[in-house]
Specification:
Helix content is about 15%, strand content about 35%. With about 290 residues, it is mostly beta strands. InterPro entries: Cu-R_lipoprotein_NlpE, DUF306_Meta_HslJ, HslJ-like_sf, Hsp_HslJ-like.
Length: about 290
C-alpha cells in the first residue's frame, strides 16, 4: 500500500509570487498548506520494554494514515494500523484519530514527523532527537510489506492484536517494566536488607495502569503513567493501615515513588530516577 497524493495543477510563477506577497496567506502559513507532508516516514522510536520500535508512518492526502511497527528484540511480528487523521487548530500537528492508548500526535516539519508526548508537547532532553521520523524519497514512499503475510498483525482487529501480544510479550530473557515483579535492592543509594520471607517489591500492571508494592509492613497500591518514552510517574498511592515496629523503609519507599520522574532498564536492572542525576531506587527481577 503506497502513500497517495492526488494530482494537482501546478500554479504559474505569477500566482506563486502573488501568494507569497499576500498578507492573508502569510498569516495562514503553516505545515498543512505550505509543506509537502504527504509521504512515508521512517525511524526507530524509543521503546519502554524493547530495544527500539521500528516505525513506518504513511500519510495520505485523503486524511488517512497507515502505520507499521516492529518491536526490536521481540521477534519478527509487524503490527499494522490504519485510520484517519485530523489537524490541530494551528495546522502544524496531525492527530491520529484512531489511536487512543498511546502517543497519537506528530508535529509536521520539513521532511520530518516528530512524535509528541501524550499531552501533545515536544519531548525534550537526550531522547528528543529519537522521536523524529524522516521522510523517505518519493520513489521509496511505499509501506514495506513483510515477506510472510502471516507475521503482519492488524491492530484494527482487536482479537488478532490481543492474541499476538500474548505471544511476543515479554521478550524472552529480558525483564520489562510492566508485568515483571521487581525486587527492591537499593533505596536512596543504600542497600536494602530484606527481612522476612516476602520480597520488598514493585510490580506494574499494563492492563489497568495500576501498580502494587511492598516494603516490609503495608501493601501499597496506586496508579502509574508514562507521559513519554522512559517517563514514569506514580500517583494516588494508598496503603493498608497495619502498625509495625519500624516503618521508616516503607515511608522512604513511598516517598521515592512519589518523586519518580523517569526510569531506565539496563542489564535487567530497573532504576527509578528524579531529574538527570538522582537515582531513587534500583530493582532486580524477583526469582
Amino acid at each position: 500500500m503506497s502513500c497517495q497524493k492526488q494530482a494537482e495543477n501546478k500554479p504559474s510563477t505569477q500566482d506563486s509570487i502573488a501568494k507569497v506577497d499576500s498578507v492573508n496567506n502569510v498569516a495562514a502559513h503553516h505545515a498543512k498548506n505550505s509543506l509537502d507532508y504527504i509521504g512515508t516516514y521512517k525511524g526507530i522510536l524509543p521503546c519502554a520494554d524493547c530495544e527500539g520500535l521500528e516505525t513506518i508512518v504513511c500519510i495520505n492526502e485523503n486524511n488517512t494514515y497507515n502505520i507499521k511497527t516492529k518491536y526490536q528484540g521481540k521477534g519478527d511480528k509487524v503490527f499494522e494500523q490504519k485510520g484517519t487523521f485530523s489537524w490541530n487548530k494551528e495546522g502544524n500537528t496531525i492527530i491520529l484519530d484512531d489511536v487512543k492508548n498511546g502517543p497519537n500526535q506528530y508535529f509536521v516539519g520539513e521532511n520530518t514527523l516528530t512524535q509528541l508526548d501524550l499531552s501533545g508537547k515536544r519531548i525534550t532532553g537526550d531522547l528528543a532527537a529519537a522521536h523524529i521520523l524522516a521522510k523517505q524519497p518519493s520513489e521509496n514512499s511505499e509501506l514495506e510489506t513483510t515477506t510472510e503475510p502471516k507475521k503482519t498483525v492488524d491492530l484494527n482487529s482487536r482479537m488478532e492484536a490481543q492474541t499476538v501480544v500474548k505471544k511476543v510479550n515479554p521478550a524472552i530473557g529480558k525483564a520489562t517494566l510492566a508485568e515483571t515483579k521487581w525486587r527492591l535492592i537499593t533505596l536512596n543509594g543504600k542497600v536494602v536488607i530484606q527481612n522476612g520471607k516476602k520480597d520488598f517489591f514493585l510490580k506494574l500492571n499494563s492492563k489497568d495502569g495500576r501498580f502494587s508494592a511492598y516494603a516490609g509492613c503495608n501493601n501499597l497500591t496506586g496508579s502509574y503513567v508514562m507521559p513519554s518514552a522512559f517517563g514514569l510517574t506514580f500517583s494516588n498511592v494508598a496503603m493498608t493501615r497495619m502498625a509495625c515496629p519500624n516503618m521508616l523503609l516503607e515511608t522512604l519507599f513511598s516517598k521515592a515513588l512519589a518523586e519518580t520522574e523517569h526510569y531506565s532498564i539496563k542489564d535487567n536492572i530497573l532504576k527509578l530516577h528524579k531529574g538527570k542525576v538522582a537515582i531513587l531506587a534500583t530493582f532486580e527481577p524477583a526469582k
